[in-house]
Amino acid sequence: MKSLKELYRIGIGPSSSHTMGPHRAAEIFSERNAHSAAYEVTLYGSLAATGRGHMTDKTILDVLQPIAPTNIIWHPDIVLPFHTNGMKFRAIAANGSTADEWTVYSIGGGALAEADGSDTSSPDVYSLNTIADIMQWCAKTGHSFWEYVDEC
Q1: Quick one: which of 57, 62, 83, 117 has the fewest CB in 10 Å?
Q2: Domain 4-121, second-level architecture
Q3: Cβ neighbours of residue 8 closer than 8 Å, sequence gap 6 or more
């Protein structure tokens, strides 16, 4: 059974783009590279500038460190062209070579995107996605916002 944190995508820090997105990216990358000897994650721009305070490193290490040693590299002075919240994941093989590499961007709310603009997000949790639709549902049913979330 999934925990509330998994079900409702609750982040561990003050910013979803600095925790939920990097956490999801680390999960995706670790699934692709479960047998790596080590990992290296480079954080760029805003993720690197405020990542320690927003616990970006902690959320990534929580996923990768139990699998293999993980090194976080900080580059607050480098902003990748697509988005300020860039990160590069690198899987390192036992012989020290790069087994896989993935650059991805945390674009807010836990969503991820690649430089070509393709979205790597999961299916919508909620059937209604705009505040106008949710307000209309609340008016129609007599329920509150929290009840909509609870129902979903």
Answers
A1: 117
A2: 2-Layer Sandwich (3.30)
A3: 149
Residues paired with 75 in a beta bridge: 44
DSSP-derived secondary structure for 81-103: SS-SSEEEEEEE-TTS-EEEEEE
33 pLDDT band, cuts 50/70/90, is very high
Please state whether beta strands 86-92 and 38-44 pair in parallel, antiparallel, or not at all (unpaired).
antiparallel
Predicted TM-score (pTM) of this structure: 0.72
pLDDT at 120: 59
Mean pLDDT (the chain, rounded)? 83
Q: Where are the domains positioned within the chain?
A: 4-121, 123-152
Task: State both tokens at 5.
Answer: 């944190």
Phi first, then psi, for residue 88 (nearest 5°) are -120, 125
